[in-house]
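Lab intake sheet, docking and co-folding queue.

SAMPLE TYPE: protein with bound small molecule
LIGAND NAME: pyridoxal-5'-phosphate
LIGAND FORMAT: SMILES
REQUESTED OUTPUT: full 3D complex as structure tokens
PRIORITY: normal
SUBMITTED BY: R.K., bench team

The fields below were copied directly from the construct record.
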Amino acid sequence: MGKRVDLRSDTLTKPTPEMREAMMSAEVGDDVFGEDPTINQLQEKMAELTGKAAALFVTSGTQANQVALNSHTQPGQEVLLDINAHIFNYESGAPAMLAGVQLHGLNGRRGILTVEQLRAALRPGDDHYPQTGLICLENTHNRAGGAIYPLSEIVRISEFAKSQRLPLHLDGARLWNASIAAGISLKEYCRYFDSASLCFSKGLGAPVGSIVVGETDFIRRAHFYRKAYGGGIRQGGILAAAALYAIEHHWPRLEEDHRRARYFAESISGLPGIEVDLSTVQTNIVIFQVDPAVISADDLVGKLEEAGVLMFVFGENRIRAVTHLDLNDEDIEYAIETFRSVLPSA
Ligand SMILES: Cc1ncc(COP(=O)(O)O)c(C=O)c1O
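RESULT FIELD (auto-filled):
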């Protein structure tokens, strides 16, 4: 088989031999009884890292967000979030199915909402309207190209949410990346939120698993919903061991992914028919625009794939490329060379 450089997603990574070793030697117990020492260790570590009272290990980022939504809201309430949020677009309509809430998508600027937008979206206290029950933010923002939420805006939104007695949830699937790129600790980011979800199975390279963090009562409710959604895993310490390994060994190296994403973006920027807004390339995701008069996004992705370079078509005339643990400098060079060679005027 020829060379293959897969830039479709940071969820594609395979556990390294060292991570598999850590999984093999994990101490386990029945986590539904609260007796898995490795899961307990991970939950304690995450509570400490995020400065929250408690943490709950769950199977996926989607499950993390959904148990959080359910734990914060009542059926029929409305959740305010950016219209490009993962929860709004890619969680299979679960908020309506599971928590029975409706989502109110707001037009954020590159995924970033303002207090003014949120204030305008609050419903009047009149029985005709749904009650606003929760605000969700996403950091980094996937559809906005891995953009980092400015802390100053988070602080303002947090103060606003408190003033309205509204809980604030963070979809921090890639908060690890934001933290490394912005030099802001997880604890500092999380202190402005009532709850947060973080994934181990994206840039961190673990095969499975996410975490929800928050206050003790919130986590107690989340524990109930996790069980209800079939997320009570028994000897899950094998998975928690991968997450613990990933935090220690793969979190600090995310800056390599960020450097490679930047290099890739700069290298393809300005090629015929390709437009990259370099200001949006802040972490490990590069989203760029293709001029259909030169080549269609589908054709470009198809040609790249023939040469072993994989990317996603991500909306009209848009393509997404993501750097991750399983790619090195040579892979990125190969992707850039291939890119140049498949464009029509090259
Ligand atoms: C921002 C964000 N939130 C949540 C998720 C959901 O994670 P999972 O695929 O583990 O359900 C993703 C997955 O890509 C994501 O990008």
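REVIEWER NOTE: The chain has a mean pLDDT of 97.
SIGN-OFF: pending second check by T.M.
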